[in-house]
Amino acid sequence: MRPQPLLCVHDVEASSRWYQRLLGCRSAHGGKEYERLVDGDRLILQLHHWGVDHHHGPIGDPDVPHGNGVLIWIELDLEPFEAAAARAVEMGVETVTPRHRNPPDGKGGPNHWEVWLKDPDGYTVVLCSPDWSAAPAP
Questions:
Q1: What residues contact 13, with CB distance under 8 A and at least 6 apart?
Q2: What is the CATH number of the domain that holds 36?
Q3: Residue 6 and residue 77: Cα distance in Å, rounded?
Q4: Number of domains the chain contains
Q5: Which of 47, 43, 6, 4 is nearest to 25 (CA)?
Q6: Number of other residues whose CB lies within 10 A of the CB of residue 47
Q7: Which residues pair with 102 in a beta bridge?
Q8: 80 and 134, same structural domain?
Q9: pLDDT value of position 138
Q10: Are 44 and 77 within one domain?
Q11: Residues 67-115: tens digit of each pLDDT
Q12: What are phi and psi of 38, to 5 degrees?
């Protein structure tokens, strides 16, 4: 099983560029209405314009608050996580929660690093390193 998350966004091309820069992924489709972002040959995220219904009808209502209670959680290996966290700072990405260990004392799981960000449409994006990748607690 592989999740294939899809986000409705206001500007597919701008969101695509944002995610590509942040995550180091690439476009596998491109366009103003729909995008597929991949890492190697694995689909990691789809972007769909709010106003386009294609053959399936509207996906959502852009006038209703979106993203409440939904987190886009993306695990990266430790080195790519550190690089993405640094790129987020360089990009001036809005930070919800700065880079931190979860749990803070390092005892128990997942004992990894996280940073919580906001994407251009206001979705919360959590970048994390693999479970047990944080250094042991002092």
A1: 30, 31, 32, 35
A2: 3.30.720.120
A3: 22
A4: 2
A5: 43
A6: 27
A7: 112
A8: yes
A9: 58
A10: no
A11: 888 999 999 999 999 999 999 999 999 999 999 999 999 888 899 999 9
A12: -130, 155
pLDDT tens sequence across 17-69? 999 999 999 999 989 999 999 999 999 999 999 988 778 877 888 888 778 88
In a domain, 123, yes or no: yes
Bridge-based pairing state of the strands 34-39 and 42-49: antiparallel
Mean pLDDT, to the nearest integer, of 5-12? 95
- The pair phi, psi for residue 90, each rounded to 5°, is -60, -40
Q: What is the largest CA-CA distance in the chain?
A: 55
Looking at residue 64, the DSSP 8-state letter turns out to be: S
- DSSP class of residue 130 equals P
Q: What is the domain range of residue 12?
A: 1-53
- What pLDDT is stored for residue 56 in this prediction? 80
Token pair in block for residue 93: 């990405």
